[in-house]
């Protein structure tokens, strides 16, 4: 990464960036070559995957049009749906089942009314739960049958193996869009680069609203492109994350907290206090631990928080035990 920054031609900052992002798109296609045969026209780059999602909301939703998701999930998506006037319906996951994603319940809800756009985040934000690819495919198939577009938001996808990714479906399901970001597992949130992968068919519609007003900066593109060369970084990250997370979760469960279903190597998880009256966010903050309050998410009470697994959980645990 540092090498890519050093090699960057700083004179280029005087010019607008190349709007086609050809080199980055080619790297993205190469990165996914084991999962799908992609070409550059199937890759849509934006200032973070958030802007790609927003464009999709603008494209497919309007007042009176509903989208289906599940709860809890990425609240900014729910907000984007509201901004464009769409209606958000969410299948509530059951706390008694550790917020397990219930594919059959989701498929049943799809049948209840037309949903031109369906959204799942996978792994899920805030639980870090991973929906298995065969279930994502069942949803993709049902969406195709119903003429719906399925967004698989894989912002946290770099924490799990590429074989689990919805990218494996993009070639076979022209109605599937997978969004990815450099912000999470790649560690480049401040750089602001993300992308969507979609069929040529959907891409043509997307291009109509992808006005090149806010291109991604040349430096950001150079750093994102370089990060795709370092698969070892991603793999090491997953191993280290799984180790730290296992250690932390074991201790938290031993202390009586509940933990929603979560993937071993995904950086986030949802922690709960069995006492519904407890404001867990405030309580942890008093102990010097910053989390995201459950009340920011539909279907999570204030006795829940989202935790970002720290690299060294010792400090977290020491604060929890009042040793700092
Ligand atoms: C599920 C999910 N999707 C998308 C995003 C947007 O990420 P970015 O715009 O940084 O790519 C986030 C960021 O928190 C997220 O959690």
Number of domains: 2
User: Which parts are unreliable, with pLDDT below 50 for 5 consecutive residues or more?
Assistant: none
Number of helical stretches of at least 4 residues: 12
| CATH structural class of the largest domain | Alpha Beta
CA gyration radius, whole angstroms: 20 Å
Which fold does the CATH topology of the largest domain refer to? Aspartate Aminotransferase, domain 2
Report, as a whole number of angstroms, the end-to-end distance.
35 Å
Query: Strand content of the residues, in percent?
Result: 15-25%
Q: From the helix content, strand content and strand pairing, which structural class follows?
A: alpha/beta
Largest sheet: 7 strands, mixed
User: Which molecules are bound besides the chains?
Assistant: pyridoxal-5'-phosphate
Q: Identify the strand order in the major beta sheet.
A: 1-7-6-5-4-2-3
- Assembly type of the chains comes to single chain
Overall mean pLDDT score? 95
Helix and strand run: HHEHEHEHEHEHEEHHHEEHEEH
**Number of distinct beta strands:** 11
Helix content: 25-40%
């Amino acid at each position: 990464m540092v090498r890519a920054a050093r090699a960057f031609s700083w004179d280029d900052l005087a010019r607008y960036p190349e709007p086609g992002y050809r080199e980055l798109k080619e790297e993205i296609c190469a990165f996914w070559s084991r999962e799908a045969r992609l070409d550059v026209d199937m890759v849509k780059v934006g200032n973070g995957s958030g802007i790609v999602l927003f464009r999709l909301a603008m494209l497919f939703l309007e007042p009176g049009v509903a989208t289906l998701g599940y709860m809890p999930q990425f609240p900014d998506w729910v907000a984007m749906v509201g901004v464009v006037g769409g209606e958000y319906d969410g299948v509530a996951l059951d706390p008694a089942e550790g917020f397990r994603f219930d594919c059959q319940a989701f498929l049943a809800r799809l049948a209840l009314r037309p949903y031109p756009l369906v959204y799942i985040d996978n792994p899920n934000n805030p639980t870090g739960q991973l929906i298995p690819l065969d279930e994502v495919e069942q949803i993709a198939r049902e969406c195709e049958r119903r003429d719906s577009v399925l967004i698989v938001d894989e912002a946290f996808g770099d924490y799990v193996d590429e074989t689990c990714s919805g990218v494996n479906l993009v070639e076979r399901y022209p109605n599937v869009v997978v969004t990815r970001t450099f912000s999470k597992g790649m560690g480049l949130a401040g750089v602001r680069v993300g992308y969507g992968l979609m069929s040529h068919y959907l891409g043509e519609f997307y291009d109509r609203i992808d006005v090149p007003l806010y291109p991604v900066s040349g430096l950001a593109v150079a750093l994102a492109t370089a990060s795709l060369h370092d698969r070892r970084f991603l793999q090491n990250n997953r191993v280290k994350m799984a180790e730290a997370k296992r250690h932390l979760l074991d201790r938290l469960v031993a202390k009586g907290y509940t933990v929603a279903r979560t993937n071993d190597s995904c950086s986030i998880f949802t922690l709960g206090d069995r006492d519904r009256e407890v404001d867990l966010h405030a309580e942890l903050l008093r102990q010097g631990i910053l989390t995201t309050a459950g009340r920011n998410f539909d279907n999570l009470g204030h006795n829940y928080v989202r935790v970002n697994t720290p690299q060294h959980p010792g400090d977290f645990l020491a604060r929890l035990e009042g040793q700092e």
